[in-house]
Amino acid sequence: MIKVYICEDDIKQLQQLQQIVSKVIVDQQLDMAIGLASQDPDELLANVKTQQPEKAVYLLDISLHSDMNGIQLASQIRDLGGRGKIVFITTHTELALTVFQYQVEALDFILKDFPDKLYERLTKVLHVAQDRFKSEEHDQDNYIQLKIGETIRSIDVKTILFFESAVSPHKIVVHLDDGDLEYYGLLKDVPDLNDNFYRCHKSYVVNLKRIKSLDKRYRRLVMADGEQVLYSAQASHYLSRQLGKRLK
Question: In 3D, which of 189, 105, 97, 204 has the Cα closest to residue 147?
């Protein structure tokens, strides 16, 4: 079931939103339920940290008259991992650019200026959110989840180049298109995360889809970003067979 979280500092508007969302869920027979409706962004964030919902929609006011505004709240929700859908309900359309700067990937903006349109807009956006979640269920193999510090992050497999043993014991470095992440784990367990991951060396697991070329003389793989990864003599035949004509 998809949980719906609402954060609005005005108690009357909060109650109105909760009533409308509940009505939309019943009227449209959506697989949703209210997770929490709160005036306090810290309370909502703490609840999300505790519950760690797999699927959630967040309806957030931007101006919360707190030490944390709705955009900052959305950013912290994103840092917790998962692929929750964020919807801003606001009078401040000029803050849309700030949302892009925080990279919170808002699903929609709903203006408070048209309260008579709230039912219609919420019906539409909640349907879109539910459809997106259903679509993503079919694409689960395209993501893996890793615990980075205290955060669970969903990472798109196609952005992963390779994994390598870190200098620190029991830690792994995952190399992505946009940087590196380090987490606790065992390299031997990485191939179980996705069929495209292959342990080509005692210190490396590569994403087979991201190999650019193979240097048989020096037993090195050149990855899509130009980085080089060693592979063992034992892995040579498998790599050649798997990559076929793409290898040089």
Answer: 189
Domain boundaries, position 164? 143-246
161 pLDDT higher than 90: yes
Number of C-beta neighbours around residue 156 at 10 A: 12
Contact 110, 125 (CB under 8 A): yes
Residues 159, 121: one domain? no
197: domain CATH number is 2.40.50.1020
For the chain, how many structural domains are there in total?
2
| Residue in this structure with the two tokens 């969903």, named with its chain if needed | 154
The model scores a pTM over 0.90: no
- Is the same domain home to 92 and 29? yes
Three-state DSSP state, 160: strand
User: Alpha helix locations (H) across the chain?
Assistant: 11-28, 41-51, 70-79, 96-102, 118-138, 233-243
- pLDDT at 103 (0 to 100): 59
Q: Residue 228's closest CA among 246, 241, 245, 211?
A: 211
Residue 192 and residue 111 in one domain: no
Q: For 200-235, how does the pLDDT look when each residue is reduced to its tens digit (9 = 90+)?
A: 999 999 999 999 998 888 999 999 999 999 999 999
